[in-house]
Design a protein that fits this description.
It is a single chain. The protein is an alpha/beta fold. It has a domain at about 30-100 and about 135-230. The protein is about 50% helix and about 10% strand. It contains 30 helices and 13 strands. The strands form four sheets. A six-stranded mixed β-sheet has the order 1-2-3-10-9-13. Strands 6-7-8 form a three-stranded parallel β-sheet. Strands 4-5 form a two-stranded antiparallel sheet. β1, α14 and β2 form a beta-alpha-beta unit. α3 (about 50-65) packs parallel to α8, α13 crosses α14 (about 320-330) and α19 (about 445-480) packs parallel to α25 (about 570-585). The mean pLDDT is about 95.
């Protein structure tokens, strides 16, 4: 490890400052070029197989989009933006007339269960197409190059068997992958030519040399493998940019992945040969980080650091330190950092991560390697592959370069409990959304409530799974991804697009929302209705249906007189385990069209707000329409006994079953992490949580006074950053409801 981190010289600092200003401007506008050129291509390819149309559309975009190199850039390649919404309006209308969309939802319409639309409208679950949230095979492309990928495709084409019943589909996919890779190669050449053109116009010798170096790098990686660190960073950025453009109009939650691992051989070789200094490597990383910031706000492009190698050895290295330092220097929201932690993680890495968290940026989020690897192995992933895991999107587990984790659709657990208490009828709409379970007056025992809840979860999940699989098949039909597939292990060998099951590992990850509200509600029912008998169940249900309009005393008692999750109380923690175990077991019953299994997660994203608005009053004393609890954390403000009790409650259930990922959000007062002693106490808390079986932790370091001042005087707090649920955001860009939810979280101290 480096004893001291490199410093940027004045020229490098000036470069980064200029790029930082430029990246803010590049996030403005819309993706008119992508839409326009994609539509033009589709108008010319009607009647051809969809995978071929997609490959030609991507190539058409890459061949025609504006090629720009900004002042001072060392890593080049921009997303196809360029016009403000007002200027692009006419072009956007033209693009819609020429194409009219990809038809995925039209294809799926009519195949969904009859009651599914009402269930989705009622906030029980959401469903739809999912893309990204994973990491391509960066290491493979860096070592074989685009020409190597094309050669592999051509070899597989020659090996196709005409007697294979899927011969036609396989041949179309491989031809499409070839077309897409050739289009990507031409894109790199276009940038080489633009850099050479600018170099000829440049009189300043240093910049002229930089442009010629950029041109040489782009020209070489248009086909060949990376030869040095600069080329490796450039090709890595190109791959990320290509799959984002193929995917759509944003970053698609694609993760650059284990940057400090696949770039390490190039960094190490250049350092040893004295072709590069650590300071120059840091500058190149900063230039790449700036490119990631150009795409969009809240894109969640995760860079994964540290952890273990596929052989089980510690993977942290000097490049890990440089990546952390690059983010500290910039203070930007992208890339989002993830630090994989295990028993042998160097203390200096943990200290560096804690210092970064202390700035309030909200990352790196911290992952427990032992639990995450066990989680993937339990899901059928080979051990050496599990050790190469990444976080795709927010917190979802994925295997680098070889998996398709369909992720991110959400399931409302508290709403299922309300249906269980009301014969399957929604309190807000009066519709029969759930199963016809017994009425409250027939529930003589607490076990009857639990049984009805289980029935509703099973009933609603069955409909959600049916919807997910319809959209899964629709995506394979309507929106294949040949370029991405060419950079996913096994897709070329299987001659199948990633959307059709070409990847080695194929999950569908469903996220349960509102764990703490459900556990607290069950605890309140058990204590006040069945143990103390201070209210009968029908009376409680009536108060819930009326949103406690004439029952404020009851609402206060529900909040204060029953145990609350987050306080290490076994009575309610056992109920949290019951909820999680039942949800996971039900999810794991199902398989998807890509040959994989459904897996459970407990990510909330922004659905605590969205689903909360469609959820009636709950027996924990929560009013109708208010925000649900965040992931596996306690409901807002209900943890009263400090952070150690929170980590005990949140590890009451087995995290190694949650492939879809989970979030433990901890909010600390800034004074808590002050000084070296504060950092060491925080590190010890993380170690304790992980030793109890916790998988993930992320941290807000902010006080409520600052957050309230930001609401009152927003002009003074434009850059105030908070951790929400799996991602960091500028506080003032959040809805007022989400701002208030973060304020209501308990601020802990150690």
């Amino acid at each position: 490890m480096m004893e001291s981190l490199p410093q940027l010289d004045d020229d490098a600092q000036a470069r980064i400052n200029g790029l930082l200003v430029g990246s803010e401007k590049l996030r403005e506008g819309v993706f008119w070029q992508r839409r326009l050129f994609w539509a033009e291509s589709h108008a010319q390819t009607r009647g051809e197989p969809q995978v071929i149309r997609t490959a030609k559309a991507l190539a058409h975009v890459l061949d025609n989009m504006t090629v720009e190199i900004g002042e001072g850039e060392l890593i080049v390649g921009r997303h196809p933006k360029g016009e403000t919404p007002a200027q692009a309006e006419e072009r956007m209308a033209k693009a819609h007339d020429m194409w009219g969309g990809h038809g995925l939802h039209e294809w799926a319409a009519g195949q969904l269960p009859d009651d599914a639309p009402a269930m989705m409208a009622g906030g029980l679950f959401n469903s739809g197409s999912k893309t990204g949230h994973m990491t391509p095979d960066y290491a493979g492309l860096l070592h074989r190059g685009l020409a190597g990928a094309v050669e592999q495709i051509d070899r597989r084409l020659r090996r196709l068997n005409g007697a294979d019943p899927d011969y036609g589909e396989k041949r179309c996919f491989l031809k499409a992958a070839h077309i897409a890779c050739e289009g990507a190669a031409r894109f790199a050449i276009r940038y080489a030519e633009r850099a050479e053109e600018l170099a000829q116009q440049q009189e300043e010798p240093r910049r002229k040399g930089e442009l010629l170096r950029i041109a040489a790098a782009c020209r070489h990686v248009s086909g060949g493998p990376a030869r040095d660190f600069h080329e490796a960073v450039q090709l890595s950025w190109f791959l990320h940019l290509w799959v984002c453009i193929e995917n759509g109009e944003a970053a698609g939650a694609f993760a650059p992945g284990r940057v400090d691992q696949y770039l390490w051989p190039f960094f190490k070789a250049d350092l040893e040969a004295q072709r590069l200094t650590a300071g120059q490597a840091l500058e190149l990383l900063l230039c790449w980080w700036m490119k990631l910031n150009e795409i969009c706000y809240q894109a969640v492009q995760s860079v994964i650091l540290g952890g273990t190698t596929p052989q089980g050895r510690s993977a942290a290295n000097e490049l890990t330190q440089l990546c952390l330092e690059a983010t500290r220097l910039l203070g930007t929201l992208e890339p989002a950092l993830v630090l994989r932690v295990h028993r042998d993680t160097p203390r200096c890495i943990l200290q560096q991560a804690a210092r970064l968290l202390r700035t309030g940026i909200g990352f790196p989020q911290l992952y427990n390697d032992e639990v995450a690897c066990a989680c993937l192995e339990r899901a059928g992933v080979r051990r050496e592959h599990a050790r190469d895991y990444c976080i795709g999107g927010c917190v979802e587990l994925t295997v680098q370069g070889m998996s398709d984790p369909w992720v991110g659709n959400f399931f409302n657990l508290p709403k299922c409990l309300l249906l269980a208490l009301n014969k399957g009828v929604c309190a807000l709409s009066g519709e029969q959304l759930g199963a016809d379970t017994p009425p409250a007056e027939h529930m003589a025992r607490f076990e009857d409530v639990l049984a009805a809840f289980r029935t509703q979860v099973a009933f609603c999940l069955q409909r959600m799974v049916a919807c997910e699989n319809v959209f899964d098949r629709a995506q394979a039909h309507c929106t294949p991804y040949p370029l991405l597939s060419a950079n996913i292990l096994d897709c070329i060998e299987n001659a199948r697009d990633i959307t059709a099951g070409g990847a080695r590992y194929n999950f569908t990850e469903l996220q349960g929302v509102g764990l703490a509200n459900t556990a607290d509600s069950l605890a309140a029912i058990r204590k006040l209705v069945f143990e103390q008998r201070c209210i009968d169940l029908p009376e409680l249900v009536a108060a819930l249906m009326d949103d406690f309009a004439d029952a404020e005393d009851l609402r206060v008692r529900l909040q204060s007189d029953s145990p609350k999750y987050g306080n290490a109380d076994p009575e309610v923690d056992d109920l949290a385990r019951f909820v999680v175990d039942g949800f996971v077991a039900e999810v794991e019953k199902y398989s998807n069209p890509r040959g994989g299994r459904f897996r459970a997660g407990l990510l909330v994203w922004d659905q605590g707000d969205a689903m909360g608005q469609m959820t009636g009053a709950t027996p924990d004393g929560r009013r109708a329409g208010t925000v649900l609890a965040d992931s596996i954390g306690p409901a807002q403000g209900r943890d009263r006994h400090g952070p150690t009790c929170v980590i005990h409650s949140s590890t009451a259930f087995d995290h190694s079953r949650i492939v879809g990922g989970l979030v433990l959000n901890m909010k600390f007062l800034p004074s808590t992490l002050e000084g070296e002693e504060g950092l060491e106490k925080f590190i010890d808390l993380v170690r304790s949580y992980f030793s109890l079986g916790g998988m993930q932790m992320q941290v807000n370091v902010v006080d409520d006074r600052t957050l309230r001042q930001a609401q009152e005087r927003p002009e003074q707090y434009q850059n105030l950053t908070v951790r929400v649920s799996g991602w960091s955001a500028r506080f003032l860009r959040l809805s007022e409801r989400l701002q208030d939810e973060i304020i209501q979280r308990t601020a802990q101290s150690l």
